[in-house]
Design goal:
Blueprint lengths: L11 E5 L3 H6 L5 H22 L3 E8 L7 H24 L3 E5 L7 H14 L6 E8 L1 H17 L10 H6 L11 E4 L18 E4 L9 H12 L9 H5 L3
Bound molecules: 3-methylbut-3-enyl trihydrogen diphosphate (IPE) (2 copies) and magnesium ion (MG).
């Protein structure tokens, strides 16, 4: 039976899209073919998430640590990324989706940055879903950069060390302005966070599936969202308190 569309959806959905390489290797194909097939899954998930009314979708597309992969794979991923953004911007306009990027953009090749700038600028006025791509992103790197910026502001006298609160610190992160993710999906059976959104995932519901990203279908997506619907998010409170609404 096909899963039904859940009525309680995450406001912010984050996804660690993993397993492209293994998907390809299991089929005696080159890893890049797995990435190409993975890009098709991205299109499906972006389209479905926006249709369902999810407000924020954040995709882990390339980590700070992924720079250590063989140069040929890194180059192929950058080319694929550029192609994807160029091809998809028209669709983002039709679907009223706004692009956003987190991560260390200074490490990305110039042509990739130019393509991203165009896409961000063109979609800046869109008021529907915010699609955040995590590129050259690492949670620890983001946190240490935030600490640097915060320290600079303290030294410049813009604020005092005693003004630093959880909320203020959050505004110094790349994700400042985005709510924390309610739900995280990771495909491919790995049960780890791999340096993704370390601060922001503090109370996120986690979902792991063995399916590799290129095989992640609409049904698998709805299955995951249905699982989210069944979670009781207590944020430290007791179940009784939540049921009594206090
Ligand atoms: C995820 O798939 C895509 C990126 C990390 C860029 P992988 O390339 O990590 O696939 P596996 O984990 O090797 O199967
Ligand atoms: C995490 O996947 C990064 C992305 C999905 C972009 P990896 O495949 O790089 O993670 P590890 O190294 O296996 O933890
Ligand atoms: Mg992987």
């Amino acid at each position: 039976m096909d899963p039904t569309v859940p009525d309680k959806l995450p406001t912010h959905l984050a996804i660690i899209m993993d397993g492209n390489g293994r998907w390809a290797q299991q089929r005696m194909l080159k890893r890049i073919v797995g990435h190409q097939r993975g890009a098709e899954t991205v299109k499906m998930v972006v389209e479905q998430a926006s249709l369902l009314g999810i407000k924020y979708l954040t995709l882990f597309a390339f980590s700070s640590e992924n720079w250590s992969r063989p140069a040929i794979e890194v180059r192929a991923l950058m080319t694929l990324l550029k192609k994807y953004i160029r091809q998809e911007t028209a669709r983002m306009m039709r679907k009223n989706i706004r692009y956003n990027v987190i991560g260390n953009r200074g490490e990305l090749p110039d042509d990739v940055n130019q393509t991203l700038d165009v896409a961000i600028r063109e979609t800046a006025g869109n008021t529907g879903m915010v699609l955040t791509l995590a590129l050259s992103y690492g949670g620890r790197q983001e946190l240490s950069m935030a600490a640097t910026r915060l320290t600079r502001d303290v030294l410049a006298g813009k604020l005092s060390a005693d003004d630093i609160t959880v909320d203020l610190f959050g505004t110094y992160l790349d994700t400042g302005g985005l709510p924390d993710p309610d739900f995280l999906i990771r495909t491919s059976g790995e049960m780890r966070i791999s340096n993704f959104l370390l601060w922001q995932l503090a109370y996120t519901e986690l979902y792991f599936t063995d399916i590799n990203w290129p095989d992640f279908t609409i049904n698998e997506f709805l299955k995951a969202l249905n699982d989210f619907q069944s979670r009781e998010r207590r944020f430290g409170k007791t179940s009784d308190q939540l049921n009594k609404g206090n």
